[in-house]
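QA checklist item 7 of 12: single-chain prediction sanity check.
[x] sequence parsed
[x] length recorded as 371
[x] structure emitted
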Amino acid sequence: MIVAGAGNPAINDRLRQLKAFDESRAGVKGLVDSGITKLPQIFIRPPEELTAGDPSPGEPTPTQFSIPVIDLKDISGDRAGLVVGVRHAAETVGFFQVVNHGIPVKLLEETLTAAREFHELAQEVKGEYYTREMMKKVKYVSNFDLYQSKYANWRDTLFCVMGPEPLDPQELPTACREVTMEYSRQVKDLGKVLFELLSEALGLNPEHLASLDCAKGHSILYHYYPPCPEPELTMGTTRHSDPDFLTLLLQDHIGGLQVFTQNGWIDVPPLHGAIVVNIGDLLQLMSNDKFKSVEHRVLANHVGPRVSVACFFTLHLHQTRRMYGPIKELLSEDNPPVYRDTSLKDFIAYYDSKGLRDHGISALSHFKLMG
Protein backbone atom coordinates (compact mmCIF):
# COMPACT_ATOMS: atom_id res chain seq x y z
CA MET A 1 0.00 0.00 0.00
CA ILE A 2 1.45 3.39 -1.07
CA VAL A 3 0.17 6.52 0.64
CA ALA A 4 0.92 9.91 -0.91
CA GLY A 5 2.89 12.18 1.40
CA ALA A 6 3.88 9.33 3.67
CA GLY A 7 6.90 11.32 4.90
CA ASN A 8 4.59 13.89 6.51
CA PRO A 9 4.23 13.30 10.31
CA ALA A 10 0.51 14.16 10.26
CA ILE A 11 -0.09 11.70 7.41
CA ASN A 12 1.98 9.05 9.18
CA ASP A 13 -0.11 9.53 12.31
CA ARG A 14 -3.33 9.25 10.32
CA LEU A 15 -2.03 6.10 8.64
CA ARG A 16 -1.28 4.57 12.06
CA GLN A 17 -4.83 5.36 13.19
CA LEU A 18 -6.31 3.85 10.03
CA LYS A 19 -4.25 0.68 10.41
CA ALA A 20 -5.16 0.34 14.09
CA PHE A 21 -8.85 0.67 13.21
CA ASP A 22 -8.53 -1.76 10.30
CA GLU A 23 -6.54 -4.35 12.21
CA SER A 24 -9.04 -4.35 15.08
CA ARG A 25 -11.44 -6.08 12.63
CA ALA A 26 -14.21 -4.66 14.82
CA GLY A 27 -15.44 -1.90 12.54
CA VAL A 28 -17.44 1.10 13.65
CA LYS A 29 -19.63 -1.16 15.78
CA GLY A 30 -16.53 -2.02 17.81
CA LEU A 31 -15.89 1.67 18.51
CA VAL A 32 -19.45 2.12 19.75
CA ASP A 33 -19.19 -0.99 21.92
CA SER A 34 -16.02 0.43 23.49
CA GLY A 35 -18.07 3.35 24.79
CA ILE A 36 -16.51 6.26 22.87
CA THR A 37 -18.15 9.67 23.33
CA LYS A 38 -15.97 11.60 20.87
CA LEU A 39 -15.46 10.88 17.18
CA PRO A 40 -11.99 9.50 16.31
CA GLN A 41 -10.08 11.90 14.06
CA ILE A 42 -10.13 9.56 11.04
CA PHE A 43 -13.93 9.99 10.80
CA ILE A 44 -14.06 13.79 10.95
CA ARG A 45 -14.93 15.61 7.73
CA PRO A 46 -12.25 18.11 6.62
CA PRO A 47 -12.84 21.79 7.53
CA GLU A 48 -13.47 22.80 3.92
CA GLU A 49 -16.42 20.39 3.77
CA LEU A 50 -17.88 21.48 7.08
CA THR A 51 -17.79 25.14 5.98
CA ALA A 52 -18.51 24.80 2.24
CA GLY A 53 -22.24 25.27 2.54
CA ASP A 54 -23.01 21.57 2.11
CA PRO A 55 -25.91 20.99 4.49
CA SER A 56 -24.83 19.31 7.69
CA PRO A 57 -26.45 16.03 8.70
CA GLY A 58 -29.75 16.69 10.42
CA GLU A 59 -30.57 19.93 8.59
CA PRO A 60 -34.02 20.05 6.96
CA THR A 61 -34.11 19.55 3.22
CA PRO A 62 -36.43 21.05 0.59
CA THR A 63 -39.90 19.55 0.47
CA GLN A 64 -41.07 20.86 -2.91
CA PHE A 65 -39.64 17.82 -4.67
CA SER A 66 -40.19 14.16 -3.80
CA ILE A 67 -38.89 10.80 -4.97
CA PRO A 68 -41.41 9.12 -7.33
CA VAL A 69 -43.24 6.02 -6.09
CA ILE A 70 -44.12 3.46 -8.78
CA ASP A 71 -46.75 0.80 -8.14
CA LEU A 72 -45.96 -2.40 -10.02
CA LYS A 73 -49.32 -4.07 -9.36
CA ASP A 74 -50.61 -2.85 -12.74
CA ILE A 75 -47.68 -4.22 -14.74
CA SER A 76 -49.93 -6.58 -16.71
CA GLY A 77 -52.55 -3.87 -17.20
CA ASP A 78 -51.27 -0.34 -17.66
CA ARG A 79 -47.74 -1.31 -18.63
CA ALA A 80 -47.40 1.72 -20.90
CA GLY A 81 -48.19 4.00 -17.97
CA LEU A 82 -45.56 2.25 -15.85
CA VAL A 83 -42.96 2.71 -18.58
CA VAL A 84 -43.76 6.44 -18.72
CA GLY A 85 -43.32 6.69 -14.94
CA VAL A 86 -40.04 4.78 -14.97
CA ARG A 87 -38.74 6.88 -17.88
CA HIS A 88 -39.54 10.14 -16.12
CA ALA A 89 -37.88 9.02 -12.87
CA ALA A 90 -34.78 7.64 -14.63
CA GLU A 91 -34.33 10.77 -16.76
CA THR A 92 -34.86 13.33 -14.01
CA VAL A 93 -33.95 12.32 -10.47
CA GLY A 94 -32.44 8.87 -11.21
CA PHE A 95 -34.26 7.44 -8.17
CA PHE A 96 -37.69 5.95 -7.51
CA GLN A 97 -39.35 3.63 -5.03
CA VAL A 98 -41.33 0.55 -6.08
CA VAL A 99 -44.26 -0.93 -4.19
CA ASN A 100 -46.27 -4.10 -4.86
CA HIS A 101 -43.08 -5.51 -6.35
CA GLY A 102 -43.79 -9.13 -5.47
CA ILE A 103 -41.26 -9.66 -2.66
CA PRO A 104 -43.20 -10.51 0.51
CA VAL A 105 -43.00 -7.89 3.26
CA LYS A 106 -42.20 -10.71 5.70
CA LEU A 107 -39.04 -11.54 3.72
CA LEU A 108 -38.05 -7.87 3.64
CA GLU A 109 -38.37 -7.68 7.42
CA GLU A 110 -36.45 -10.94 7.88
CA THR A 111 -33.67 -9.65 5.62
CA LEU A 112 -33.24 -6.46 7.65
CA THR A 113 -33.27 -8.52 10.86
CA ALA A 114 -30.60 -10.88 9.48
CA ALA A 115 -28.43 -7.89 8.53
CA ARG A 116 -28.67 -6.53 12.05
CA GLU A 117 -28.00 -9.94 13.61
CA PHE A 118 -24.81 -10.45 11.61
CA HIS A 119 -23.38 -7.06 12.54
CA GLU A 120 -24.26 -7.64 16.20
CA LEU A 121 -22.50 -11.00 16.39
CA ALA A 122 -19.68 -11.42 18.89
CA GLN A 123 -16.48 -9.90 17.52
CA GLU A 124 -14.58 -13.21 17.49
CA VAL A 125 -17.28 -14.68 15.21
CA LYS A 126 -17.85 -11.69 12.94
CA GLY A 127 -14.14 -10.88 12.68
CA GLU A 128 -13.47 -14.16 10.87
CA TYR A 129 -15.12 -12.64 7.78
CA TYR A 130 -13.16 -9.36 7.91
CA THR A 131 -10.87 -8.92 4.90
CA ARG A 132 -9.88 -6.50 2.14
CA GLU A 133 -9.08 -9.32 -0.26
CA MET A 134 -10.59 -8.23 -3.59
CA MET A 135 -11.51 -11.69 -4.88
CA LYS A 136 -13.25 -12.86 -1.72
CA LYS A 137 -16.94 -13.44 -2.45
CA VAL A 138 -18.13 -12.96 1.12
CA LYS A 139 -16.40 -10.38 3.26
CA TYR A 140 -17.10 -8.09 6.17
CA VAL A 141 -15.30 -4.74 6.03
CA SER A 142 -15.57 -1.16 7.20
CA ASN A 143 -15.02 1.41 4.42
CA PHE A 144 -13.87 -0.23 1.17
CA ASP A 145 -11.88 2.96 0.45
CA LEU A 146 -10.51 3.40 3.98
CA TYR A 147 -6.98 4.22 2.83
CA GLN A 148 -8.03 6.44 -0.11
CA SER A 149 -10.77 8.57 1.43
CA LYS A 150 -10.39 11.96 3.08
CA TYR A 151 -12.26 10.61 6.09
CA ALA A 152 -13.82 7.30 7.07
CA ASN A 153 -17.58 6.78 6.95
CA TRP A 154 -19.60 5.70 9.98
CA ARG A 155 -20.63 2.37 8.44
CA ASP A 156 -19.78 -1.35 8.41
CA THR A 157 -20.68 -3.70 5.54
CA LEU A 158 -21.08 -7.41 4.83
CA PHE A 159 -20.48 -7.84 1.08
CA CYS A 160 -21.78 -10.96 -0.73
CA VAL A 161 -21.24 -11.71 -4.43
CA MET A 162 -24.33 -13.75 -5.33
CA GLY A 163 -23.90 -14.15 -9.10
CA PRO A 164 -23.50 -14.83 -11.92
CA GLU A 165 -21.69 -17.90 -10.52
CA PRO A 166 -23.92 -19.34 -7.77
CA LEU A 167 -22.56 -18.70 -4.30
CA ASP A 168 -22.06 -21.75 -2.08
CA PRO A 169 -24.43 -21.05 0.87
CA GLN A 170 -21.79 -22.44 3.24
CA GLU A 171 -19.66 -19.37 2.53
CA LEU A 172 -22.31 -17.16 4.15
CA PRO A 173 -22.49 -16.58 7.92
CA THR A 174 -25.13 -18.77 9.55
CA ALA A 175 -26.79 -15.65 10.99
CA CYS A 176 -27.99 -14.59 7.53
CA ARG A 177 -27.44 -17.64 5.31
CA GLU A 178 -30.98 -18.82 4.60
CA VAL A 179 -32.47 -15.34 4.30
CA THR A 180 -29.68 -14.13 1.98
CA MET A 181 -30.21 -17.01 -0.45
CA GLU A 182 -33.98 -16.42 -0.60
CA TYR A 183 -33.75 -12.63 -0.83
CA SER A 184 -31.14 -13.01 -3.57
CA ARG A 185 -33.51 -15.19 -5.62
CA GLN A 186 -36.42 -12.79 -5.29
CA VAL A 187 -34.51 -9.55 -5.80
CA LYS A 188 -32.94 -11.04 -8.94
CA ASP A 189 -36.43 -11.64 -10.35
CA LEU A 190 -37.45 -8.07 -9.51
CA GLY A 191 -34.30 -6.81 -11.22
CA LYS A 192 -35.29 -8.60 -14.42
CA VAL A 193 -38.69 -6.88 -14.38
CA LEU A 194 -37.10 -3.47 -13.81
CA PHE A 195 -34.57 -3.95 -16.61
CA GLU A 196 -37.46 -4.79 -18.96
CA LEU A 197 -39.25 -1.56 -18.00
CA LEU A 198 -36.03 0.45 -18.33
CA SER A 199 -35.37 -1.09 -21.76
CA GLU A 200 -38.83 -0.05 -22.91
CA ALA A 201 -38.27 3.40 -21.39
CA LEU A 202 -35.31 3.74 -23.78
CA GLY A 203 -37.54 2.74 -26.70
CA LEU A 204 -35.90 -0.69 -26.97
CA ASN A 205 -37.07 -4.29 -26.87
CA PRO A 206 -37.92 -5.34 -23.27
CA GLU A 207 -35.06 -7.87 -23.30
CA HIS A 208 -32.42 -5.45 -24.58
CA LEU A 209 -30.65 -4.62 -21.29
CA ALA A 210 -30.81 -8.25 -20.17
CA SER A 211 -29.19 -9.26 -23.47
CA LEU A 212 -26.24 -7.04 -22.49
CA ASP A 213 -25.87 -9.00 -19.21
CA CYS A 214 -27.15 -6.15 -17.03
CA ALA A 215 -29.24 -8.60 -14.98
CA LYS A 216 -26.74 -11.46 -15.08
CA GLY A 217 -24.93 -10.85 -11.80
CA HIS A 218 -25.60 -9.14 -8.50
CA SER A 219 -24.05 -8.53 -5.10
CA ILE A 220 -25.83 -7.97 -1.79
CA LEU A 221 -24.40 -5.49 0.72
CA TYR A 222 -25.61 -5.49 4.32
CA HIS A 223 -24.90 -1.99 5.67
CA TYR A 224 -24.90 -1.18 9.39
CA TYR A 225 -24.78 2.42 10.71
CA PRO A 226 -24.39 2.46 14.51
CA PRO A 227 -25.53 5.47 16.56
CA CYS A 228 -22.90 8.19 16.23
CA PRO A 229 -21.70 10.36 19.14
CA GLU A 230 -21.07 13.41 16.90
CA PRO A 231 -23.05 12.91 13.66
CA GLU A 232 -22.59 16.52 12.55
CA LEU A 233 -18.86 15.87 12.07
CA THR A 234 -19.01 12.84 9.77
CA MET A 235 -21.20 10.95 7.30
CA GLY A 236 -22.81 7.54 7.25
CA THR A 237 -21.86 7.34 3.58
CA THR A 238 -20.09 10.10 1.66
CA ARG A 239 -21.84 11.51 -1.42
CA HIS A 240 -21.29 9.22 -4.41
CA SER A 241 -22.94 7.54 -7.37
CA ASP A 242 -23.02 3.76 -7.81
CA PRO A 243 -20.58 1.92 -10.15
CA ASP A 244 -23.16 -0.60 -11.39
CA PHE A 245 -26.10 -0.91 -13.78
CA LEU A 246 -28.86 -0.64 -11.18
CA THR A 247 -29.15 -0.60 -7.38
CA LEU A 248 -32.11 -1.90 -5.38
CA LEU A 249 -32.06 -0.76 -1.76
CA LEU A 250 -34.08 -2.00 1.18
CA GLN A 251 -33.92 0.46 4.09
CA ASP A 252 -35.29 0.31 7.59
CA HIS A 253 -37.51 2.90 9.31
CA ILE A 254 -34.76 5.24 10.54
CA GLY A 255 -34.02 7.08 7.29
CA GLY A 256 -31.00 9.20 6.44
CA LEU A 257 -30.69 8.45 2.71
CA GLN A 258 -30.56 11.65 0.63
CA VAL A 259 -30.34 12.35 -3.10
CA PHE A 260 -28.75 15.42 -4.70
CA THR A 261 -31.17 17.16 -7.06
CA GLN A 262 -31.67 20.56 -8.62
CA ASN A 263 -33.39 21.47 -5.35
CA GLY A 264 -30.38 20.42 -3.27
CA TRP A 265 -30.33 17.42 -0.97
CA ILE A 266 -33.72 15.76 -0.54
CA ASP A 267 -34.69 12.85 1.69
CA VAL A 268 -35.67 9.42 0.42
CA PRO A 269 -38.22 8.69 3.13
CA PRO A 270 -38.58 5.13 4.41
CA LEU A 271 -41.74 3.60 2.96
CA HIS A 272 -42.80 0.33 4.55
CA GLY A 273 -42.64 -2.53 2.07
CA ALA A 274 -41.00 -0.41 -0.64
CA ILE A 275 -37.65 -0.90 -2.37
CA VAL A 276 -35.61 2.10 -3.52
CA VAL A 277 -34.28 1.87 -7.09
CA ASN A 278 -31.51 4.02 -8.52
CA ILE A 279 -29.72 4.20 -11.85
CA GLY A 280 -26.03 3.23 -11.76
CA ASP A 281 -23.11 4.87 -13.55
CA LEU A 282 -22.90 2.11 -16.15
CA LEU A 283 -26.54 2.53 -17.14
CA GLN A 284 -26.04 6.28 -17.54
CA LEU A 285 -23.07 5.50 -19.78
CA MET A 286 -25.04 2.95 -21.82
CA SER A 287 -28.03 5.27 -22.19
CA ASN A 288 -25.69 8.02 -23.40
CA ASP A 289 -26.77 10.33 -20.55
CA LYS A 290 -30.50 9.78 -21.12
CA PHE A 291 -30.77 8.13 -17.70
CA LYS A 292 -29.15 9.82 -14.69
CA SER A 293 -26.90 8.22 -12.11
CA VAL A 294 -27.07 10.81 -9.36
CA GLU A 295 -25.10 11.42 -6.20
CA HIS A 296 -26.59 10.28 -2.93
CA ARG A 297 -25.40 9.99 0.65
CA VAL A 298 -26.42 8.69 4.07
CA LEU A 299 -26.40 10.93 7.12
CA ALA A 300 -24.87 9.80 10.39
CA ASN A 301 -27.32 9.93 13.28
CA HIS A 302 -27.50 9.87 17.08
CA VAL A 303 -30.26 7.28 16.60
CA GLY A 304 -29.39 3.78 15.52
CA PRO A 305 -28.41 1.38 14.37
CA ARG A 306 -29.69 2.10 10.88
CA VAL A 307 -29.71 -1.00 8.68
CA SER A 308 -30.01 -1.20 4.90
CA VAL A 309 -29.55 -3.90 2.27
CA ALA A 310 -28.26 -2.85 -1.15
CA CYS A 311 -28.40 -5.10 -4.21
CA PHE A 312 -25.91 -4.02 -6.89
CA PHE A 313 -26.63 -5.40 -10.35
CA THR A 314 -23.12 -5.80 -11.71
CA LEU A 315 -20.85 -8.63 -12.85
CA HIS A 316 -18.16 -7.44 -10.38
CA LEU A 317 -15.60 -10.30 -10.16
CA HIS A 318 -16.94 -12.20 -13.17
CA GLN A 319 -14.48 -12.31 -16.06
CA THR A 320 -16.15 -10.99 -19.20
CA ARG A 321 -14.75 -9.62 -22.45
CA ARG A 322 -17.88 -7.62 -23.18
CA MET A 323 -17.26 -3.91 -23.69
CA TYR A 324 -19.78 -1.34 -22.53
CA GLY A 325 -20.51 1.94 -24.26
CA PRO A 326 -23.51 3.96 -25.45
CA ILE A 327 -26.14 1.60 -26.90
CA LYS A 328 -25.85 1.82 -30.69
CA GLU A 329 -29.61 1.91 -31.23
CA LEU A 330 -29.80 5.15 -29.26
CA LEU A 331 -27.16 6.98 -31.29
CA SER A 332 -27.68 9.24 -34.26
CA GLU A 333 -26.15 12.27 -35.93
CA ASP A 334 -28.09 14.42 -33.47
CA ASN A 335 -27.19 12.15 -30.54
CA PRO A 336 -23.51 11.18 -30.93
CA PRO A 337 -21.79 9.04 -28.29
CA VAL A 338 -20.82 10.88 -25.10
CA TYR A 339 -18.63 8.09 -23.72
CA ARG A 340 -15.93 5.74 -24.96
CA ASP A 341 -16.36 2.00 -24.59
CA THR A 342 -14.92 0.42 -21.46
CA SER A 343 -14.65 -2.99 -19.87
CA LEU A 344 -16.29 -3.55 -16.51
CA LYS A 345 -12.89 -4.43 -15.08
CA ASP A 346 -11.42 -1.06 -16.10
CA PHE A 347 -14.45 0.86 -14.89
CA ILE A 348 -14.51 -0.79 -11.47
CA ALA A 349 -10.73 -0.48 -11.11
CA TYR A 350 -10.91 3.26 -11.78
CA TYR A 351 -13.88 3.74 -9.42
CA ASP A 352 -12.19 1.78 -6.62
CA SER A 353 -8.90 3.66 -7.03
CA LYS A 354 -10.79 6.96 -6.80
CA GLY A 355 -12.94 5.82 -3.90
CA LEU A 356 -15.64 8.18 -2.63
CA ARG A 357 -13.21 11.03 -2.07
CA ASP A 358 -13.74 13.27 -5.13
CA HIS A 359 -16.90 15.19 -4.25
CA GLY A 360 -18.90 16.24 -7.27
CA ILE A 361 -16.62 14.39 -9.72
CA SER A 362 -18.26 11.28 -11.10
CA ALA A 363 -16.15 8.33 -12.25
CA LEU A 364 -18.06 8.72 -15.53
CA SER A 365 -16.12 11.88 -16.36
CA HIS A 366 -13.00 9.75 -16.84
CA PHE A 367 -14.72 7.85 -19.68
CA LYS A 368 -16.18 10.84 -21.53
CA LEU A 369 -15.14 11.48 -25.09
CA MET A 370 -13.51 14.82 -25.73
CA GLY A 371 -16.08 17.04 -27.44
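[x] summary fact logged: Residues 9-367 form a domain with the Jelly Rolls fold (CATH 2.60.120.330).
[ ] second reviewer sign-off
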